[in-house]
Amino acid sequence: MPLVNIRITREGVSAKQKQQLIAGVTQLLVDVLGKNPATTVVIIDEVDTDNWGIGGQTITMQRAIEKNQP
Amino acid sequence: MPLVNIRITREGVSAKQKQQLIAGVTQLLVDVLGKNPATTVVIIDEVDTDNWGIGGQTITMQRAIEKNQP
Amino acid sequence: MPLVNIRITREGVSAKQKQQLIAGVTQLLVDVLGKNPATTVVIIDEVDTDNWGIGGQTITMQRAIEKNQP
Amino acid sequence: MPLVNIRITREGVSAKQKQQLIAGVTQLLVDVLGKNPATTVVIIDEVDTDNWGIGGQTITMQRAIEKNQP
Amino acid sequence: MPLVNIRITREGVSAKQKQQLIAGVTQLLVDVLGKNPATTVVIIDEVDTDNWGIGGQTITMQRAIEKNQP
Amino acid sequence: MPLVNIRITREGVSAKQKQQLIAGVTQLLVDVLGKNPATTVVIIDEVDTDNWGIGGQTITMQRAIEKNQP
After folding, report:
1. For this structure, is D70 an active site residue?
2. Cβ neighbours, 10 Å, residue A56
3. Per its UniProt record, what InterPro entries does this chain match (chains A, B, C, D, E, F) (predicted)?
4. By C-alpha distance, which of D68, D50, D69 is closest to D59?
5. Looking at the predicted structure, is the pLDDT value of residue B70 above 80?
């Protein structure tokens, strides 16, 4: 019955990787807490890099700075 | 003042159905808790079937399996 | 499979009222979207009035003002 | 280390405004709580006006009513 | 930079189990997506069984029914 | 109408600081987006340090390590 919400930036995560995340976190809840995998829900939110900030700056700006560094 | 967040898979919910969900859940909070409908907020998140997992599998995979069953 | 999160202030909601909210919103999702009630999850978060603000003011402060009004 | 989630309607917020929100809320957490800005995360969710309800009505419907008022 | 939110019922999860969940899900994001563990945040919410419903019923009620079954 | 959710560790934030956070973020949404403060909602979630992880470790463990450093 656990719910897991994974929030990541929208930067080309494939359907296969999403499936791996969902399978992996479901198994983790079985292993650590003995939860029933059949009712474990995992939702992945992909967030635009303009809409995600860390250190007071959007990820879009940080990616641009990283790109310009030698 | 209550906040309600409804998360469903993105599978063709119409604007009319969204309106029915919002009206229905707002009325429920009036009926059960006596909340003021004017300040009751309802947000519906539609999530891609690739991004929603249950039982360790994405909904996309489950829909494909269901389709292939006789 | 839908998930519903209801956030309300912590002001003495009874176990019976919580049960009514959960039953009511689950039925609404059956009626409007034809969702399976067996996998519909509803989580109620109760939030202290010090931790909830509207109009730039905590609910604690607003309740105090309301109380002092004739 | 704080996390901030800002949910607004999707109505043409610019990248510059998003940057201002992220910078402003990060600074607020430094000023009020002395938090480290380097690990402060801000995520902005833009929600379609069909998917946001207040007073039992979608914002889409409310915008239409406002437009028709003299 | 990913954020993970794990919501489970409040039923005696130990500090050691929480640590295992946090370490496990952080490693999963490294393995599947190559994310930086240093900025991966995991938050565990424990929810009272009165406040969690599935199948239109609180977990409290479901635990009571299970207990009475032979 | 915006909603803001601030999640911080539960480490002695005062009612006054919460009021400052709520007032500050509400004003920010007025200044940057011209939002109506009367319908701006801010919710602060305080999370136990056992339930918050970063870098694969709970904050409880990190605080203990910091304390033991000369």
Report:
1. no
2. 19
3. 4-OT, 4-OT-like_dom, Tautomerase/MIF_sf
4. D50
5. no
